[in-house]
Write a structure and sequence with these properties.
heterodimer; A: Tetracycline Repressor, domain 2; B: alpha/beta; Cytochrome-c3 Hydrogenase, Chain A, domain 2; about 25% helix
Amino acid sequence: MARRSKEERKRQIMDEALRLFSKEGFFEVTIADIAKSLHMSVGNLYNYFSSKEALAKELILYISKLLGNEIRKINLQPISAKEKIKKIVQFYFYTAKERPELIEYFLRIYLSHREVFKEGCEGMICVSPFVTEIMIFFEEGVRSGELRDQDFFSAFGLFMGYLGGMVFLMGEGMLPNDIEYYIEDISQNIYLALKNG
Amino acid sequence: MDRVFWLQGITCNGNSHSFVNLSTLPALLKNIEFIYHPLLESLSFSKALEQNFDILIVEGGIKRDWQRGGVEFEKLFLELASKAKRIIAVGSCAVYGGIFKEYDKEICGVLFAKEEKSHYFEKFKDKTINIPGCPAHPEWIAYALIYQKPHLDDYFRPKELFAYTVHAGCTRNEYFEWKVDAKSFGLKEGCLFYEQGCQAPYTHGSCNKILWNEVASKTRVGTPCFGCTEPDFIQRDLFQTKTFMSIPAKMPLGVPKRAYLTLTGVAKSFRIERLSKRLIDD
């Protein structure tokens, strides 16, 4: 088998860490647990991440870039803001279903344990790739006249708070239907709340 | 010694007045001669018309079938412009039509009508230099009088003066870097770009490099730049920044929106204590 590149190995560690955090809980899982699960020595794992905090920060950047890249693809499509809303909702719920560890990390670890991220992830720094694309989505929607002009955070909170809330309910096993069942109605609700006039 | 004819079209006279503020005017007048200027000592208008001259300065907009002092102004302009070796359009009205064009769409500048070429473009493009501004800075006018063949940009503005943005040299740049807004105009602290309508980051000009009255500029004293050197001048709501969902509608010149938003997000994540205080608070 070909030797993995350092980047590939790093990504493998991040994927495994996410899986374990999601299954066992962030504070229960140690660097040693992650190394063991990957059949690596602890010392070797420290070559990639100097501490659990460093790994935690890299993970949020990794997730933010991944989500940001997908929303960027949606932003670049020549479609209306209404259609973009549906595509963003679809993508977000699909990710939550297929790779729940990504969204869970964002909601349950990053947003709930800001003390872990206090140095190096101030403000929007570690979620900038994701937030930037959401900003561009809103800016273009207002510029074209399709969405109502307002403060960014009142719109951002409505959109992301709503999606995050639904994924949280899904994670708690409280949704009577599959999350994809809600795509149509939720997209419609968000559009109606944000549209101009 | 170059002989200069200063012709006024549809104008408020602001550029004539601006020019007499030139601190080196006595020295300049040893090297050029005004055969006609509305404020400086020169020949009477009718006598000046009989003279030969080298440079025609046009101040103010031009309109067909518009009369001044019983004379059809366009005819006068065409006659003098054809005779001149060089033309300097001074002020945004002579360059693009300016503020009067907002009132009458027929008004245009020597080479441009806002972003479009005027009817005179082809005829005079090879001998015209544009010095926009509302008013034009006296040193920019002097520069155009002295330098015969400066490098020009797409709007025929000398690059030496207009390749910069007004943002370059602004004493508030530290606040721009860290995205600290000024909460009202007239303050020493804060950047005027986010809330106060400042157009300096995308306006060509050297107002913060060649200071006004040799001491200040609008942004230095706390008033937003109104973008007066650009063809889309004048816009409305000058003391407010147009935003779409809190994001400035116009980006700093040449900066892609994604790059700007990424950098802004990072800068806004930190609070710089020194920049959040009054500079002088005792």
